[in-house]
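Appendix C reproduces, verbatim, an entry submitted by the partner laboratory led by Prof. M.T., so that reviewers can inspect both the input and the predicted structure.
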Amino acid sequence: MSNEADACAVVTKAAVEDVDNDPWPLAVATYNIHSAIGTDGRFDPQRIAGVLQEMNADVIALQEVPLGDSRRENVLAILQQATGYHAVEGPTEEHDHRRYGNAVLSRYPILCTRTIDLSFGSREPRGALDADLDCPGHPLRVIATHLGLRPAERRDQIRRLLQAFDTDTMPVILMGDVNEWFVWGRPLRWLISHFEAVPAVKTFPSRWPLFALDRIWISPRRRLLRIQVHATPLARVASDHLPLIAHIDG
């Protein structure tokens, strides 16, 4: 994966017709789909699609997405077909036997994408998918990411993320599975210092949530109206994480 590739990627667009010309307030969500393997151990992309349809969010950041390889079908393609949204992928692993990573689904056109390599030493490859969205009246920048399991890894990744984007050109939303177990850990303190504090809602594990691993930040902070977890019976079984939804104003 390229390190903060500057060229705009070719994005996959669905036939989304008659979208609202005034989308605000907007619902954005982040969802670690656990490779579409539910808490019952069953691979079932249609359950993930059902959760997305329940949420009806305008923009969705996805993590742990199978992107089509010799072992497993392209789950992003299934979710795009189910929602009718524009879609773009951000693979963190690309081999014949494994294509896997982050993705963004959007009700509104995706103008441009970049990838940010967040890999750390010999640990599992990580990255962020950085996308500019054509939301009517207010262009929006969305960064979808999935950080590492070790504290040193996350500290390095947050430093690189904060250096990679400039919040002055358009509103920025950073969302994803940050894997931060420590409430007062340095990565969270750095993010709060940059974006200001936001509610930390418990999303993991999905059956009995104990940890706020999935997070959404926005700059400017005043645009955030509320954050909520999507904890329906289907969401509790479809993945080991619950989706997190934020409502933002224009």
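Residues 57 and 83 are 10 Å apart (CA to CA). Additional entries are available on request from the coordinating office.
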